[in-house]
Write a structure and sequence with these properties.
Elements (H helix, E strand, L loop, with lengths): L1 E6 L20 E5 L7 E4 L5 H11 L3 E5 L23 E7 L7 H9 L15 E7 L4 E5 L2 E8 L5 E8 L2 E6 L10 H8 L4 E5 L4 H4 L10 H10 L5 E4 L7 H14 L3 E3 L5 E3 L1
Length: 275
């Protein structure tokens, strides 16, 4: 399984001299599997998905699976500029949690994002063939006979879902937009990510800043390290990075995290890791 980081920032994309080393696009991660049917699985549709879409078209990949953590704009804003949705030969299957009040991804795309005045083209005119599959958070899904996707409720305003992707003997966990605390299902979290080969975890804040932003639904790098140590995770990627943190500050955070958990690293836009 190969994991690629296409967007690693949280809240909004950033640009300029302060983010040249880490990158400025919002959340998007892909997993490339040996399985032919689900060769490329995408987590979230932040602005990072735009460059990924160009690569998928260049490689001729026509069957795509997209898994959405939640419906905040920074995790959806790249879809309209994701080139495969404008290719009539492409099939995209979207997996997303079903929220209360009848909200689901299909409804949001068709009635909010892909309609005037936000966007000029309605979703029903998108050329790609799109399928929407919803689930209740906590479900375990079989994407195919050898690919399992487990889900976990996260601590985030409006709800968010964490994922554990299992294929062969490898496990990849995607835990973003989550405010970790001992009071919010910590035991369940530790069981969920136990011995994962790679855990991507929300590290929006420093431990000091996190005290100012309690209830915002994001964690510190120290919380991520704590989870990784307790759950015997093999590698930890610091993710959903604060767009206000510059490269120098982030490189310092990476060193501090590695001093406590040597197998941790900053997720960098454009980087990849084999697990």
């Amino acid at each position: 399984m190969k994991i690629n980081f296409w967007g690693v920032r949280g809240s909004y994309p950033c640009w300029g001299k302060h983010c040249t080393q880490i990158g400025g696009q919002t959340s998007c991660v892909s997993a490339t599997l040996s399985n032919a049917q689900h060769n490329r699985i995408i987590f979230d549709m932040g602005t990072g998905i735009i460059d990924l879409g160009k690569e998928l078209l260049d490689q001729g990949i026509k069957h795509i699976t997209v898994i959405v953590s939640h419906f905040h704009l920074d995790h959806l804003m790249g879809l309209a500029f994701f080139k495969p949705i404008w290719d009539e030969g492409t099939t995209i299957t979207f997996y997303s949690p079903h929220l209360s009040k009848g909200l689901d991804l299909e409804t949001i795309l068709k009635t909010k994002l892909f309609c005037p005045p936000l966007f000029p083209i309605p979703f029903n005119e998108v050329p790609a063939t799109c399928y929407f599959k919803t689930f209740q958070t906590g479900d375990s899904l079989n994407l195919s006979k050898d690919i399992t996707l487990k889900t976990l409720n996260l601590n985030h305003p409006g709800c968010a879902t964490g994922y554990r992707l299992e294929h062969g003997n490898k496990a990849f966990c995607y835990i973003t937009d989550h405010e970790h605390s001992a009071e919010f299902n910590e035991d369940q979290m530790l069981r969920f990510v136990q011995k994962a080969d790679l855990m991507v975890f929300d590290t929006m804040f420093t431990p000091e800043d996190s005290k100012t932003y309690v209830t915002w639904g994001h964690s510190s790098w120290q919380s991520a390290v704590d989870v990784a140590q307790k759950a015997a995770v093999k590698r930890l990627a610091l993710f959903h990075i604060n767009p206000d943190y510059d490269d120098d500050k982030l490189l310092k955070i990476e060193k501090e995290a590695q001093a406590l958990f040597p197998c941790s690293f900053l997720a960098r836009e454009g980087s990849s890791i084999d697990i």
